[in-house]
Q: What sequence folds into this?
C-alpha cells in the first residue's frame, strides 16, 4: 500500500516534470480514442437504421390452391409454433384479390375476365432478427417449403444479401480501425515511457543498488502510462459528448430526416473510453519498462 | 559475514582479481587498501552483486552469491549500506529525499522515515542542508550525504568505498567515529581507502590488495 502511494506520488511528479511531452501524449491518445468512439457512434446509428430496415423483411408463403380450410389452419398453427418465426399473418384468396384490385385501380377490369379467383392464399412471416442472414433464411425457407400444402416461398434474396454485406463491412471496418487505433495508443505511450525510462536510467541503477524491488522501480512508470491513457480517455469522452450534443442539436435544422434516425449514444460508450485508454497505455508502458535486470 | 573463496574476476581479457580468498567476521571492522586500479571497488561490487565472479564462491550475510536469483538480489542489498565511490546521489531529489529513499525502499512508515533521516543528518552535521539539492553541495558535503544514506537503514554490513576522499582530516575523524559507533552496535564494516591515517592505530585488519591478489594482511 505504501509503495503504491509512493509510486503514485512519483508518477504525478514525473508527469508534471515532463508536462509538455505528457501533454502531447495525452492529446494523441485522446485524438485516437475520439476517432474510435466517433466511429463507434456512427456504427451504432447505422446499426439502428439497419435494424429498422430489417424489421420490414418478411417471407411470403403461398399455399397450394384448393387446400382445405382445415389444412390451412393446421399450417398456420405449425408456423406459429416455430420459435424462429415472430409473426404469422394470414392473407386469404379473397383478401389478396381485394388488395390487387386496389393496386390496379382502373385497370382492375381485367380481373373480371377470370371466372375464379386466380390468386392463392398466403402467409406473411416475420423472422427473428438473429435469423436475418442469407444462408439461414434460405434454410428456413426451404424447410417451410417442405411442409405439405405449400406451393412456394418468396423473399427478397438480393435485398437480404446486400443488407448483410453492409453489416459485414461495418463490422470488419470497426474491428480494423479499432485495432489500428488501439495499437497506435499502445505505441504512443510506449515511446513516451521509453524516453522517460532512458532519461532516468542512472536513477534506476541507483535504486537497484539501494535494494529496490522490480515493482518499486516499475510501478511509477506503469502508473504514469495508466494516467496518460485515463486522461486521454476522459478528454475524448468529454469531446465526444460535446460534439455529439452539438450535432444532435444543429443537424435537424438542415436535415430533419436525420433526426429520426439518430440514436442517443448509450452511457456505456462514454464510460468505456477512459478505461480502454488506460488499459492500452498501461500495456504500452508495461512493454516500455520491459524486464528489469539486476 | 563476508566469505570469498578462490574468487577471480575478469573484465574482458583483463584479470582484475585472481584466486582471492578472505573471510570477514560478523561485527568486524576491516580496511581494504592498495594502489589505484588494484581492484578495491571491484571487490566491493562483487559483494553487492553489481558484478558477478567468474570463478570461486562468495557468501554474504548467509547468501550464496552464485545461487542468488535476480529477484532476490534486492533483498540481499537491503542488508547492506553502501558508500559509493561515485556517490550516486539523485540530482532531482533533495538531501532529505535522497536519504529517505533508502528507507522508502525498505518500506518504512513516513513518520519514522522523517525521524530517522533527521537523526542521521545530524550525525553527519548536515541537518541544515536537508532541503538542498546535491548539485548545490560541496564534494565533502555530498560524500557525507552518501554516508548518511548508507547508515540510515542500520545495515548488517556497511561497505564504504573511499568514504573520506573529499573530506578534511577533522571531518574524516568525525565520519570514522560514526563508523566505529555503528560497528560497535554490531554492523560489519568494510572500508576501501588509500588514506593510511584512517586505519593507523585502529587495531583493525588491513587487507592490502595488489597485483590481483590480497598481497598481505596487516593489523593497523
Ligand atoms: N566496468 C569495467 N570494465 C572494464 N574494466 C574495468 C571496469 N571497472 C573497472 N575496470 C578496471 O578494473 C581495474 C580495477 O578497478 P577498480 O575500480 O576496482 O580499482 P580500485 O582499486 O577501486 O581503484 P581506485 O583506488 O582508483 O578507486 C582497473 O584497471 C579498471 O580499469
Ligand atoms: Mg575504487
A:
Amino acid at each position: 500500500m505504501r509503495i503504491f502511494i509512493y509510486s503514485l506520488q512519483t508518477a504525478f511528479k514525473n508527469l508534471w516534470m515532463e508536462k509538455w511531452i505528457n501533454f502531447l501524449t495525452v492529446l494523441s491518445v485522446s485524438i485516437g480514442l475520439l476517432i474510435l468512439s466517433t466511429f463507434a457512434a456512427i456504427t451504432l446509428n447505422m446499426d439502428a437504421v439497419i435494424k429498422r430496415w430489417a424489421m420490414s423483411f418478411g417471407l411470403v408463403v403461398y399455399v397450394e390452391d384448393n387446400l382445405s380450410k382445415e389444412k390451412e389452419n393446421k399450417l398456420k398453427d405449425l408456423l406459429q409454433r416455430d420459435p424462429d418465426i415472430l409473426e404469422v399473418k394470414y392473407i386469404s384468396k379473397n383478401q389478396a384479390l381485394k388488395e390487387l384490385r386496389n393496386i390496379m385501380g382502373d385497370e382492375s377490369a381485367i380481373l373480371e375476365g377470370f371466372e375464379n379467383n386466380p390468386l392463392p392464399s398466403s402467409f406473411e412471416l416475420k423472422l427473428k432478427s438473429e435469423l436475418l442472414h442469407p444462408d439461414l433464411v434460405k434454410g428456413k425457407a426451404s424447410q417451410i417449403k417442405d411442409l405439405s400444402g405449400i406451393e412456394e416461398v418468396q423473399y427478397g434474396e438480393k435485398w437480404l444479401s446486400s443488407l448483410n454485406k453492409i453489416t459485414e463491412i461495418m463490422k470488419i471496418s470497426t474491428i480494423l480501425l479499432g485495432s489500428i487505433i488501439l495499437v497506435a495508443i499502445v505505441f504512443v505511450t510506449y515511446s513516451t515511457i521509453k524516453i522517460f525510462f532512458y532519461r532516468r536510467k542512472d536513477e534506476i541503477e541507483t535504486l537497484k543498488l539501494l535494494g529496490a524491488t522490480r515493482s518499486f522501480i516499475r510501478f511509477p512508470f506503469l502508473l504514469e502510462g495508466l494516467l496518460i491513457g485515463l486522461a486521454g480517455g476522459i478528454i475524448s469522452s468529454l469531446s465526444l459528448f460535446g460534439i455529439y450534443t452539438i450535432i444532435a442539436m444543429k443537424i435537424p435544422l438542415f436535415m430533419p430526416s436525420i433526426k429520426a434516425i439518430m440514436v442517443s449514444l448509450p452511457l456505456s460508450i462514454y464510460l468505456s473510453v477512459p478505461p480502454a485508454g488506460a488499459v492500452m497505455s498501461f500495456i504500452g508502458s508495461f512493454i516500455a519498462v520491459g524486464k528489469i535486470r539486476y | 559475514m563476508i566469505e570469498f573463496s578462490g574468487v577471480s574476476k575478469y573484465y574482458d581479457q583483463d584479470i582484475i582479481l585472481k584466486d582471492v580468498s578472505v573471510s570477514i567476521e560478523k561485527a568486524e571492522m576491516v580496511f581494504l587498501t592498495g594502489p589505484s586500479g588494484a581492484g578495491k571497488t571491484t571487490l566491493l561490487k562483487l559483494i553487492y552483486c553489481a558484478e558477478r565472479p567468474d570463478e570461486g564462491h562468495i557468501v554474504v550475510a548467509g547468501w550464496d552469491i552464485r545461487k542468488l536469483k535476480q529477484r532476490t538480489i534486492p533483498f540481499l542489498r537491503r542488508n547492506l549500506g553502501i558508500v559509493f565511490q561515485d556517490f550516486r546521489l539523485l540530482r532531482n531529489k533533495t538531501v532529505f529525499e535522497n536519504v529517505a529513499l533508502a528507507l522508502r525502499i525498505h518500506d518504512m512508515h513516513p513518520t519514522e522515515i522523517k525521524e530517522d533521516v533527521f537523526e542521521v543528518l545530524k550525525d553527519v552535521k548536515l541537518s541544515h542542508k536537508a532541503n538542498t539539492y546535491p548539485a548545490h553541495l560541496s564534494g565533502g558535503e555530498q560524500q557525507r550525504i552518501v554516508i548518511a544514506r548508507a547508515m540510515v537503514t542500520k545495515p548488517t554490513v556497511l561497505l564504504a568505498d573511499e568514504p573520506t576522499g573529499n573530506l578534511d582530516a577533522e571531518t574524516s575523524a568525525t565520519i570514522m567515529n560514526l563508523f566505529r559507533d555503528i560497528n560497535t552496535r554490531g554492523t560489519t564494516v568494510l572500508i576501501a581507502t588509500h588514506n593510511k591515517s584512517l586505519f593507523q592505530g585502529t587495531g583493525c585488519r588491513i587487507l592490502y590488495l595488489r597485483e590481483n591478489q590480497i598481497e598481505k594482511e596487516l593489523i593497523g
Observations:
- The mean pLDDT of chain A is 88.
- The beta strands of chain A are 59-63, 85-91, 122-127, 150-154.
- Chain A touches chain B at residues 2-3, 6, 17, 203, 205-214, 216, 293-294 (CB under 8 Å).
